């Protein structure tokens, strides 16, 4: 995939892990902590899902920008589903690479 400048970028999938639920237990996308185009950091919580009364956070798979959201709030999803895509920042991406995480 190419970005708006025409440069190729590597996309990492945000995948819903197996949460140990049975096939009859619905999993619902509850909340995205970032919007499309926002910078995200590897390991930080990116999207929250509901499993019955419990909530689980799905982390960002890499540092970069949230390029696409596929699992929208209130969507019912299954383990292994691709919830979104993160455009990974490579070591040679230049000055737009975040030098440090913003304050929480």
UniProtKB/TrEMBL annotation:
Cell membrane as UniProt keyword: no
Gene3D superfamilies, sorted: 2.40.50.100
Q: Which InterPro entries match?
A: Biotin_lipoyl, Single_hybrid_motif
What stretch or stretches form a coiled coil here? none
Q: Can the keyword Acyltransferase be found in this entry's annotation?
A: yes
Q: The Lipoyl-binding domain covers which part of the protein?
A: 14-83
SUPFAM superfamilies linked to this entry: Single hybrid motif
Please, which domain of life does this record's source organism belong to?
Answer: Bacteria
Which GO molecular function entries does the Swiss-Prot or TrEMBL record give?
acyltransferase activity
**Alphabetic keyword roster:** Acyltransferase, Pyruvate, Transferase
Write the protein's name: Pyruvate/2-oxoglutarate dehydrogenase complex, dihydrolipoamide acyltransferase component
- What species is this protein from? Singulisphaera acidiphila (strain ATCC BAA-1392 / DSM 18658 / VKM B-2454 / MOB10)
Q: What is the lineage of its organism?
A: Bacteria, Pseudomonadati, Planctomycetota, Planctomycetia, Isosphaerales
């Amino acid at each position: 995939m190419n970005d708006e400048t025409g440069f190729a970028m590597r996309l990492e999938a945000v995948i819903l892990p197996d949460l140990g639920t049975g096939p009859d237990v619905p999993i619902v996308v509850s909340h995205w902590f970032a919007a499309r185009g926002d910078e995200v950091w590897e390991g930080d919580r990116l999207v929250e899902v509901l499993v019955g009364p419990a909530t689980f956070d799905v982390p960002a798979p890499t540092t970069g920008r949230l390029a696409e959201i596929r699992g929208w709030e209130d969507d019912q999803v299954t383990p292994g589903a691709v919830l979104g895509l993160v455009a990974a920042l490579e070591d040679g991406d230049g000055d737009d690479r975040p030098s440090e995480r913003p304050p929480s």
